[in-house]
Amino acid sequence: MQNKPLIGTPGAKARTIPAEPEQYGLGRSLTATVLRLPRHAAALCFLSAAVFIAMTVMEFFYFRQLSGGLPSLDMRYFGFTPDEGMAWLTALGRRGGEIILVWHYLTFDLLFPALLSLTLVSLVLATGRRLQNFRELPGQVQSIFALVLVLPYTLADYAQNIAVARLLSDFLSANPDSLSFASALIVTKFALLAIPVVVIAAFWLVGQRR
């Protein structure tokens, strides 16, 4: 009968524990960060509202003066025709286009989509946790659910910002195809924004009834 080497004897190999993949630790860290957002929901709502009010004031009291009263493309929730988009760009001129590019797309609207997305995620989790079925879900499932609802809007908003900023920075790029593409992105952005807003409202209403 062959003797097995003792743990303390020379030549015995120590048992090795495979290292946990780094992505698992990163995933847990991201989940923990997302799940902490509801604690800051009130502050996030305040900051989002403040930035939105500042953007609205700039739109009505400054940008529309530059465009002769025409609303910015971002404000056209149902999109616009290529002729309408070209009329807005023409009314702005190069100077007006540069002003809106700097004071909107490279400042406020560079921050706002990310800030609003964090606010929406925090509200989805905060209102969802008022419901027992949602509260009993694993934390990772809760965070994935909130991110899947909100991230499509975030990506669409930044894609739309890039498309419109390109039109403002290079008027020669404005043609029926590029204007139609920017219009489609604006409509898509607001449609995707409506999804988490409706879910938050539904969670809140169901929580109120219970």
Structure, described:
- The protein is mostly helical and 210 residues long.
- 74% of the residues lie in helices and 0% in strands.
- Helix 2 (41-66) runs antiparallel to helix 4 (108-128) and helix 3 packs across helix 6.
- The N and C termini lie far apart (70 Å).
- Mean pLDDT is 88; it is low at 16-21.
What's the short story on this structure?
By secondary structure, the protein is an all-alpha fold.
Keywords, please?
210 residues, elongated, mainly alpha, 74% helix
Secondary-structure blueprint:
Elements: H1 22-36, H2 41-66, H3 82-105, H4 108-128, H5 132-135, H6 139-169, H7 176-209
Helix pairs in contact: 1-6, 2-3, 2-4, 3-6, 3-7, 4-6, 4-7, 6-7
For the termini, the CA-CA separation is: 70 Å
Helix content: over 70%
- Counting helices, strands and paired strands, the structural category is mainly alpha
- The number of distinct helices, counting runs of at least 4 residues, comes to 7
- Look at the structure and give the mean pLDDT: 88
**Could you tell me the strand content as a percent range?**
under 5%
Any idea what the radius of gyration is? 25 Å
Shape, principal axes of CA atoms? elongated
Major β-sheet annotation:
none
- Total E-strand runs: 0
